[in-house]
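Lesson 9: reading folded outputs for more than one chain in a single document. The general rule is that every protein is listed as its sequence immediately followed by its structure tokens, and records are never interleaved. Here is the first one.
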Amino acid sequence: MNKEINNIVLRRKNKVFLLTDKKENNKKTAKEFKEKFAAVTAFVKNLEAYGYTASADMFNTMLGLDMDTIKRNYKSVISLIKEQTGADETYNVMYPNFPQQVIEMDDADLFYNAIVHYFANGEIIPEYEKDDRFPLFLRDKKLKVIELATENDIKDIFNNIVGSKTSISTQDKEDISAILNYYYEDENKDIRDLLLTNTITHKEVGAFVCAELVNREGKDILNHMSLLSNLGCIKTYTDILRLATALSCGDISLAENTKFKLKKYERKLIMNLLISINSLKDEDLYAYKNKWIRLCEVIHPSDYKNSFYTNSKVVKKLRELGYSDYKPKTFNSLFTFYMQSKDIANAVNLLKTRPTMFARNLDFVLRVADKEKYTDYVIDEFYSIASSVASPVLIQLIDFYNQKLNQSKFNYNVYMPKGNTLKPWVADNKQPNLDKALYYNIIAICDIALANIYSNRPALGKVYIDKEFKNFAIPSSQRSASSGANVLTRYSHMPILEDTNIIRSFIWWTNNDNDRSSQIDVDLSAGIYDNDWKLIDQISYTHLKGTTKNCVHSGDIINGGPADGNGVTECIDIDINEVCKNKGRYIVFQIFNFSKIPFSKMSNCRFGWMERNDQTSGKIFEPLTVKNLYEINSSSTACIPVIFDCEEKKYIWLDINGNYNNQQFLNNLEANVGTTTLLCSAMVDKCKSNLYDIVLKNVLANKDSILVANRNMADIIFSNDTTKPVIKEVYVDSEGNEVIKEVERNDVDIITTNNLDYFMSNII
């Protein structure tokens, strides 16, 4: 099985494809079976060191294979799991006996070592003998159960991703490409068996999938047109612009400019699509006028002389764009005119033609309109079309008004601009507040609309929802989300294990190549803040030892080494109990690229953290203790991945870039205390819908779905506990006695928080 495909199903579903032996007759003697049993048992035992175990089905399937195939499967599965946990790399820190070595060293020695390292351009690292460490204190840890994958799992993953109702991440796009490659490379597979019609609803997703298909189908224009027609993604001229952008590897959201690069057959395809759309709306062209001008320069229809291309209406329109001062009355211009004139009735009538735009502008209209005259009218009109609003936007509207009802003491709003590069910014909430009763009314309308939408979806049957899902935020926009096995949605929070005393964060990276000019210096820092978000301590390259006991940095390394080498690591230990004793509460981890190279341009860069119950036992890196690990692929030189709340013993997932308010985010912790405080405090207090509530809304809205309290009775289980439910079966033994036996159920689906594709496609 393709390794990429195995990586996908393991990451998303905790499943793997096993290699099978080629022997038709696999009968074994008792001795041989005993040897295989021991080998498979050892295989499963080794999995536990990485936090995994094998299901009973996987165990029994392995027993049916020959010894050579068992060994090959072991290498394959272990290799995949090492990549998931980060154990596939070597983690070399400056001080090999970290953290105790740093804690006990004189500041003068630490300073001298740093100076020598800096003047040597990062090529000299102090040499110390590595001490033997006491073995890791083992603790009870819930193991992830690996199941056997099937071809249907691949199809489910693909169609869930492409059926997403929100924008998708870079990881999602890579998985789509890998699955398409898997189908195109196998002559026995038909791509049309993978592509379900009417599954793609999000414009950006549709453009990306269409571009991927065009890249694989080659120069067969007719086949392109047939595939795209079946998908139903290309309906407007803006859809064609998105496709051209996707083919040029640009920003499909159209928030950023794109340098169009199209092959000849791609240009011809674009022309065919333009002509195939019957209704030409000036608004579609003039909304992105400059982008169409640049695209037209690349397409240059004049190449197709004496053809119907040059005589088409759309080509003439495209030619006029560059020199015409004509400004058509667009939806936005009309809406702006009505609002400036305070013509609320016409503004509302216009918005009703585009229900989602009505939802996005509802608060604006209510604030501008005369409260006595128009408030009830606006609300009634919105209620009449609310069920036609896209469900993700309804959820966003609920969150918006819940935020107003639960305004934090800091009273700031966080804004996440559209685009591939997430540059959040914070502003004072200066908007006048409306009557709270109105907020409750709008939330109720949105809930009713969601119920109407969800009632028309396929029934889920008997549903069990783990209360843990209340901690996980709903994915609303994944464009800039990082890649990894356990990447959460922004604003999600998870409890720290009860016996955790030490949070050990780490950053690992390499240079881009062997050229010394490409040397990359990445810095890991941690700021400790009190309950009022005042900085009380820091651990960084300028302060290896914090004033808080047992809070320590492993040493600043400025050279990542060869791209194909072992790489280098920086770690920071945080003693949770000591932080609380020192009246600290929040730990904000920040990552800076001192070399000012965007993380997206780096060959290797990953961040993660471990939950340890003892600071001195175990190796510096223990895969069993890794809580999270992800690739840093943001288009910035600074990022804030996570915040730890030591008081409530939980972590809050941020995954944001360090650029906001149109300011240059300077590459050290000290220069960004104010802006970091502002951003993090606002994001911690952000109201966000959670997965538990949204699943519950789906269940309550559908008459054929029911919520059950016992997971053993469920048809579908939403839980991170992947243990299969059991049922009790009664049978009569040979002596006529009734025997009760617990049997695992194989007819139940278990959905974890890793299955974001499922939620984005079927639940939101």
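And here is the second record, again sequence then tokens.
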Amino acid sequence: MYKQFFLFIGAVMLLFLHFPSSGFALSDETDEFMYHAMETYHIPGASLAIVRDGELDYINTWGEMSDGRAVTPASSFIIGSISKPITSFGIMQLIDSGDLFLDEPVDTYLPSFEYASPNDQLITIRHLLEHTSGITAHQSFSITDQETFTGDSAIREAAGQLNGLELAAAPGETYDYASANYLLLGAVIEEVTGQPFADYMAEQIFTPLGMTQTSANYEEALNAGYVPGYESWLGQPVKSSGLYDHSGAPYGYMTASAEDLAKLLGFLVNGGDLLSDEMHEIYTSAPEEGGRYGFGWRFTNPFDDQHYAWHTGASPDYRSEIFFDPSQNSGAVLLINKNHQLEAEAYLSMMEGIRHIMNGDEPPTLPAVSYVTQWTIAAALLGSLVAGTVSLILIYRKIIINRTLWAVTGGLGMAIGAGLIPLFSLMLGTPWRTIRLFTPDVAFFVQGVTAVLVVWGVLTILILTVKRKKTAATKEMLSGDGTRLA
């Protein structure tokens, strides 16, 4: 009996020795870190999965979705630009099968796509994958995060909006991260396969990997449980109205669960039948020296000099990050249902903390989020509102008598107000619509300042005009009375 007891104890000890990363230390420390991060950054819901040796090692969820349901491992999140490496996966399959060629001009597959190149050099599939096509981020913003196109033709119609584009640089010359590159790759997949993008991805990637909650179109996303996430206003979560770009799946609007993306990570670490070993190596390898972006993957860590494949994703109301390190046979994916562009560093630090825990290290202190930008603009709004109200009262009561000066000031206020939003957009190099989607509180305060300046200018000139007419009428009346008395 004693022998059986000691054999049992030995077996239990061997179990924990064989699976150190699955022990209570990883689970407890990760849970504690995530609870702290979610409380610090006011995140309503999150899901985290960790893979080691190609197998799911840890998965947990916290909080709730915007409809009140608890987040589960199968909960569907918009994964943002994590869609890009998945689209690249589809492209690599077509190259593997000989239906596409990496250095073939995109014109071969999309003959209707016309563009002007500085030296007449053609864009290749490689250029699109690596964001070196010559298409700029600003050009891309004009067709992304839209709700203009719907149905199976949405991707082709959106890609058609790029016709006549003038490239800012010769293909292959410069790196400029632009989602339009992956929109075009989505159109290439449709043209080559003769299938809607969503159908191809489901048949060739999602279903074979068992990614049952992953989708590349809106209807399937709804069936998988997709609901809008949360915008962030001064750090506080506010339910979003739920923008979904029906043409955006190739670059940023796929939906997936942490459970499903863990299965993708297993393939990325171990390989499998969906890609040849050679193509899997190409797909997951870092770019050549001097390159900024691989075939759907980033490799430069913003926190240190470690090299591994990773990608973030963002929509107006969701945020995500995925990474895998073949040298460690490990990876992780983090999904959260809240986003704000000025909080990006905070969200990045969450995954950095997870990586530290996975490596057996203490996670770094989470950085505080600064709201200086929002409060500064809010103060400008309040200041302009108070100053404008006081000046209008003074003008109305005739305490201010330099009418010419105030008429000019009123006109200047209207001009500044009318030009503030275009100027703000120009300074950031980002269309106003994108600013409004990804920094809604900033946009609200800027629009408030704009409205106050324009309304104040109009009212100032209106009051001065009315008072001038009244003064003229009074003088005329007095002049008339004097004539009659004479």
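What the second record shows: The two ends are 135 Å apart (CA to CA).
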